[in-house]
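Hello K.,

You asked for the raw outputs rather than the summary table, so here they are, unedited. I folded two proteins back to back in the same session to keep the settings identical. This is the first:
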Amino acid sequence: MLCKHGVIKDLSSQSFMAGILAAFVGFSSSFAIVVQGLRAVGASPAEAASGLMAVSIAMGLCGILLSFKTAMPVSAAWSTAGAAFLATLTPLPGGFSTAVGAFVITALLFMLAGLFKPLGRAVAAIPTPLAAAMLAGVLLPLCLAPFEAVIRFPLPGLTIILVWAVVARIKRLLAVPAAVCAAALLIAVTVDIDGARIQWWAPPVMVTPRFSPAAAVGIALPLFIITMASQNITGMAVLNSFGYRPNAGSMFTWTGAFSLASAPFGGHAVNLAAITTAICASDEAHADAARRYWAAVVSGATYVVFGLLSVAAAAFISVSPPILIAAVAGLALLGTLAGSLVSALSGEADREAALITFLITASEVTLFGITGVFWGLLGGGALYLWNRRRKS
């Protein structure tokens, strides 16, 4: 397939520009969430920068490989929802090494989901209202950050929200990148940042994985379910909507392999993209659907470049007020939160079970070292099955 389709003559200016735009939107809209998530589970600034670099390069190379392999615009991404989930946690005993062990388990679960079809079907069988409610519960605390930022830093917080709102009225796709630029400018102007503390390059940091049952249940399993339900399956649906039919098992296996490669360096998860896939697979990428794969190839190459420069981005974040960074991340996730709530609560029959899942997850309760995401899905699932049994 690579020899037949992967030729330079298929590249066009349309595909090139669509790929650049997809990478810029994908990276700038959520890199702050990734850094925040890694720091929350115990990563040092150097380890968080390494994780951002590793997952950026891994998803770029994954997108390039899968696009050439299938001659389809398969765009890969980091798990934004997974990073948002990590941002709600606190370090487990063993620190970041324990989190990295969980990342390794998650990657292996991705591969198993691709190779062992019943596992993939089991994830897909999680009721949509419960999966959506779980994701909404994960996102809610982060989506409150823009309003907390206004209270703590009124002028910068309001400015970031205003820029986001104004640009969204003009071009919604560019609203979050504009908010990122506004936040960076405001931080540079209002915060006393020592330029000597900003490190522009550093080698990746290898972290020895440490495995624990609490991390497997509290981090790895929820990260796997969230990423599969909200991103991998969604990414496949987007490709299908444009008429592309790649083998789902192969896609999941490859994303798992690249996740596994990035995990020892702090990368949390690589998955199929939805928004950037839509950009690369649209008519704007090329009139000929058979040549749009180059948009995803260019996007992947751009991700690799961004990954090599991500140390500077992570360093800038590390010396910035965390609430302003969280505010940008929250704005980036508002649309996802809204869609998740609509999906979770739209059906009257399952609304109560979805609400229980949402509330338990959003409460961030931790029992026996296991996070609220697991308990939320367990509690909502139990009520869902009880209601179905009672009606049968």
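The second followed immediately with the same parameters:
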Amino acid sequence: MEGLDTTSIVPLYKQLKDLILKQIDEGILKPNQKIPTEQELSELYQISRMTVRKSLAQLVDEGILAKKQGKGTFVQEPKITEDLSNPGSFTNLCKRNGKVPGGHTLKFMLTEATDRDIRELQLETGEQVIWIERVRLADNMPVMLENLYFPGHLKNILTENLDDSSLYQILKEKYGLHSGNSVMEIEISECNSYEASILEIKAGSPLLLMREIVYDQYDKPLHRSKSLIRGDKFKYISPRMNVIKSEK
């Protein structure tokens, strides 16, 4: 067993933190695995519980570990991370995060446009939309319930098989359409029983609700979307650029 060096200038809490990180990197401690208690770590490495607590607190704050009330401290499974300044397709997002993308189509039909469809897709009253509902998988685990709405004039895509496929790739290769600019909004939602059954979580669990209007290369609405995303599996980052410092 690798121990701590009491003669080192590196603080003991930092040594323990680095040791736990090393054990995670080497697969000794695995995602969702419970780690020893504060008391057990204190006795194992002959250090105070206060030192152990400081190490664990930093790892929890950094999202490496997670405390579960009444159960203990567990290794956090790495979340799928997307940079909102450079968003891409779900397929590419999974690949960038070392996950195998997949999906199943739940609904794929031509239907009457709602007021929201007409407004956001710039349609005429009475036009139809193509409604696609898909559950998206990462390493065969359901992580997103996605609803897409396309203008009805693209109804040829109804012949496509979307399971385990990139819709953007199909649009690019077969229809010459590329995604361009988009407008996105994200909020918190509470999942209902249907959404919970699809995503294999408990009803009432918090989800990230993402709505987006995606435009094509001609700056015309390509589709709108409503995606319900498991917050325990995803993380979004958004860099702030050209921030003006306030005058002192």
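The chain is about 25% helix and 35% strand.

Happy to rerun anything if the numbers look odd on your end.

Regards,
P.
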